[in-house]
Every structure is written in C-alpha cells, then in structure tokens.
Amino acid sequence: MEKLKIGGDKKCPYYLRRAVFAMRMIGKGAKSLQKFSSYMALPAPVSQKPFDKINDEILRATTVVANSCMKKADEEEELLTGSSDNMVSGDGT
C-alpha cells in the first residue's frame, strides 16, 4: 500500500491538522472552525488556504485507503466465489 505523509509540514502543527479533520468529519469547513475557535477563546486557526491544503491531504489518504480496502474485498470475494466478475455495493445490497 502507498504510504502518504499527512500534514508533515512543520509550519502546520498537529492540533491544527486534527482540527481540520474534526471539521471534515462533521461536514463543516474553515469558517466553522474559525467560529468554534472564537467561541472557545482559542487562538485563530488556519486560514482558508492551509485548511484546503490539509483537507486535500486527508482526501488523498482516504482515497488510497478506500481503494486498497475495495481491492482487498474484491480479491477475497474472487477467492470465495471463483469469479472475477464481482460488483460492490455501498448501500448493503
């Protein structure tokens, strides 16, 4: 599996990468992170450009993991069924 370095930039502290990830997990963006930081009297978080950069790194990493998992599932199904004509459904059907 391809190894990706997420947010290895020393200019972007670990807690900011985690904050961007948390906002992404609840479907919010940079403005919501700024608002949350303001409400909690925290220092200003990353601006839009670094937020987008971190978000892109998260997207690349999740894409690699998702593709790897789907490939592994296909290989397992091929072993079980003996057929290489497999389809995957994301809704459980």
From TrEMBL:
Domain of life assignment: Eukaryota
Protein name: Uncharacterized protein
